[in-house]
């Protein structure tokens, strides 16, 4: 079955399809701690959660899109437990540290291979990553900050509904929480007016600073006087970043890692230290002069992007990120027509690391999928 067929399939048909996938075989073989999951293995729990979805009171009022997001969040929320489960030597309990983070990446790859559109794929992948957050919000020092922050990453209402299904789709010998605990997420989000929508900040700069500060003031209205504007391109080689800049930001000077590599005759597979050093020098020259410019690189993961975004923010720049991701087969064809062709093995390896940007990283975000 492909993505279009799965979207319109019943939950039972989705389960039948999933049961034949290799990642599902791994879930079926992955046992969980009986204290919290007396129902047994990960796949048994997953099916129970899926069957709880239609029993949720608001289910029939949800749009087909929202139902799809919840179904595939339920299907994939524990998909990485087979990779992360281990026995805690201190307690003897089975634990799965960071399974949600690894699950986000696995979900992204599974959905991409199915042909899922980029926007829906990322919505589901982020739901998988943050699916456990509502459980702990009442124990956070600042619950409002939790729900406000997540409202720009996921839909808080859908996250709350999924958490209810996840809670009900298990047989716990030692109940550690009640549904009242889970409803605290909904209450906190409703009080902050971000249950069904992202929190409305005073300005995009107020949002930008809120995500960058350790102890942000939700109601702070910052003065806006930017030194320049930086357009940060992100995407795999061959995705069309140069073309987008030529069509949309042709007036800007461009700091391009590809061009710097060519000038220094450094291959993409070689050590990139000199390339990064030259690029930072070029960026600082524009930033000090107050000249708006574009920065063109792959920028595929938050850690790498973050170093550049920190540099631009330190100089008081207004930052937009433009992320482009056509289907992989299209991208590989486009790469072959480039002047500097990147080896296909390099592109495929990079594609496994993709972690697209979010609204938490920039003043403005543009996502372009094929």
UniProtKB/TrEMBL annotation:
It holds the Pfam family AAA_33. The keyword Transcription does not apply. InterPro entries: HD/PDEase_dom, HD_domain, P-loop_NTPase, tRNA_CCA-adding_enzyme. Residues 61-135 form the HD domain. Keywords: Hydrolase, Nucleotide-binding. SUPFAM superfamilies: HD-domain/PDEase-like, P-loop containing nucleoside triphosphate hydrolases. It comes from the Bacteria. One of its GO terms (molecular function) is hydrolase activity. The keyword DNA-binding does not apply. This is Phosphohydrolase.
């Amino acid at each position: 079955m492909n993505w279009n067929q799965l979207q319109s399939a019943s939950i039972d048909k989705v389960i039948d399809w999933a049961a034949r996938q290799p990642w599902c075989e791994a879930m079926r073989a992955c046992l969980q701690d009986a204290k919290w999951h007396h129902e047994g293995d990960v796949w048994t729990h997953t099916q129970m959660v899926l069957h709880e979805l239609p029993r949720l009171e608001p289910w029939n009022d949800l749009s087909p899109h929202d139902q799809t997001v919840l179904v595939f969040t339920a299907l994939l929320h524990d998909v990485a437990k087979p990779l992360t489960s281990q026995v805690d030597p201190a307690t003897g309990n089975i634990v799965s540290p960071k399974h949600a983070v690894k699950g986000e990446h696995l979900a992204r790859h599974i959905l991409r291979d199915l042909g899922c559109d980029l926007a829906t794929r990322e919505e589901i992948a982020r739901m998988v990553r943050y699916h456990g957050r509502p459980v702990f919000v009442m124990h956070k020092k600042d619950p409002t900050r939790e729900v406000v922050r997540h409202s720009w990453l996921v839909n808080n209402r859908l996250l709350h509904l999924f958490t209810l299904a996840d809670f009900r789709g298990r047989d716990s010998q030692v109940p550690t929480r009640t549904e009242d605990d889970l409803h605290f997420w909904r209450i906190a989000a409703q009080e902050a007016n971000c249950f069904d929508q992202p929190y409305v900040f005073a300005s995009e700069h107020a949002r930008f600073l809120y995500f960058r500060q350790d102890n942000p003031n939700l109601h702070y209205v910052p003065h806006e006087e930017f030194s320049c504007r930086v357009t940060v391109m992100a995407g795999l080689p061959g995705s069309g970043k140069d073309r987008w800049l030529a069509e949309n930001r042709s007036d800007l000077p461009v700091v391009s890692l590809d061009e710097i590599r060519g000038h220094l005759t450094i291959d993409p597979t070689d050590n990139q230290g000199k390339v990064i050093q030259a690029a930072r020098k070029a960026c600082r020259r524009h930033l000090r002069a107050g000249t708006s410019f574009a920065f063109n690189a792959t920028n595929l993961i938050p850690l790498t992007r973050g170093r550049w975004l920190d540099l631009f923010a330190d100089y008081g720049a207004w930052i937009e990120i433009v992320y482009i991701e056509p289907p992989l087969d299209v991208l590989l064809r486009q790469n072959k027509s480039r002047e500097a062709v990147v080896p296909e093995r390099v592109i495929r390896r990079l594609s496994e690391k993709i972690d697209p940007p979010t609204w938490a990283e920039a003043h403005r975000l543009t996502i372009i999928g094929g």
